[in-house]
Amino acid sequence: MRIGLHCPEVPGHLNPMTTLGGELQRRGHEVTFLGCQMAESIVQRSGLPFYSLGPHDPLNERLEQSFRELGKTSGIQGMMMTGKIFGIQAKIVQQYLSQAIDEMAFDGMVIDQVSPAAAVQAEAAAIPYAVACNALAVYWDPYMPPPPLPWDYRTDLYGRTRNEVAKYLVLWAYRLFAAERKVGVDPLKLLRDNDSALVHLAQQPAFFEYPRTKYPERLHYTGPWHRAERDDTSIDFPWDWLDGRPLIYASMGTLQNAVSHVFRNIIDAVSDLPMQVVLSKGGGQVDVPGEIPENVLLVEKAPQLRLLEKATLVITHAGMNTALECLSHGVPMLCLPVTNDQPGVAKRAEYLGNGRVIPVRKVTTKRLRAELDRMLSDDSFQRKADEFATNLASYNGLEMAAKLIEQALETKQQVINSVHVQRNRSN
Do 167 and 297 lie in a common domain? Predict the structure, then answer.
């Protein structure tokens, strides 16, 4: 089959999507990634063909500039900037994706859950498609706090009411800044069960989710879409710096990591720990003034998966990919979520018992150190992390996701999750 892929042009979505595309390619399908210009380098490294949408359109430069601005924001401000980015992406997709679909003659597409403009174009062209949840799988439910808010999971009346009010406020703000009236696309189209996708796939495992009031019946939790060979072996890392002391790996991701005060707080909090700390800037716009203690190595980029094999604990922004990699490697997480779905991912780690959360706006050296001392002295976090790693060792998320995509696109029929159907009957 000829299959087109589309997702937001950022590493947190591109890495799992291109890895999934590579699995489909390995299984004999002709796979092409369709995206804005800024995605080209990452896609090409994955070995997939790349089709550029409007490469000479000034909207591509506006998109890149908006992502740079997003790297300096957090919380609601970050969500609003994400809405602006959505509006730019939607315009590019609306203008150029239909031409790509006509030229490539796809048998089907795989579209990211937060790329509804592509779904609209696929439906208009009568192209069957699957939805890939590369980030946190988000579906309306009274029990679920909006992902941008670091709230605890609550099922009581207060929790349900709070969640519903907040969802509509988040929806209003997101639609306002996404300029929905101008682009004509509902930014939450693929989150509310009013789409024509044949199947929805989430790379998070089923255990990494709260109990729900209703389970989406086309949604399948498959497990992570990453391979060890995805780690960038071209990164020049001084492995001989590691001297055998316990290791903490710290990273605030590759996009929304321009929070210099957080990097300084991390450095100060670990300066006298009997451990080594690798702190990655993630290639971001980070300025970290002041001295760096001897037990801290500050690097532009780091070979994350290989460091996770050695780490005792991870300090993370709680992006979905890093969270899943920590789960797979059995490493507890101290989460400092910034915006978008990161607070939701972080609170799930805390709910499951293998993580703790400090919202990024509340990060201080004192609070970081207190949480580090707690997590390093309480072995329950490591026991939980070991339990989840053992669980995930039996998963083959890539194979399961690829088979479900094949089933959907070959039969052109919805692929229903019988477990979710049964749970809905029991609720």
Answer: no
pLDDT digit string (tens) for 330-377?
Answer: 999 999 998 888 999 999 999 999 999 999 889 999 999 999 999 999
Q: Domain span at residue 348? A: 237-392
String of b and e for 98-127 (b: at least 16 CB within 10 Å)?
eebbeebebbbbbbbbbbbbbbbbbeeeeb
pLDDT digits (tens, 9 = 90+) for 152-209: 999 999 999 999 998 888 777 666 665 545 667 887 889 887 799 999 999 999 999 9
400 and 388 co-located in one domain: no
Q: How many domains does the chain have?
A: 2
Domain identity same for 135 and 12: yes
CB 53 within 8 A of CB 149: no
Q: How many helices (H) and strands (E) does the chain have?
A: 15, 13
| pTM recorded for the entire structure | 0.91
Say yes or no: 281 and 372 in one domain: yes
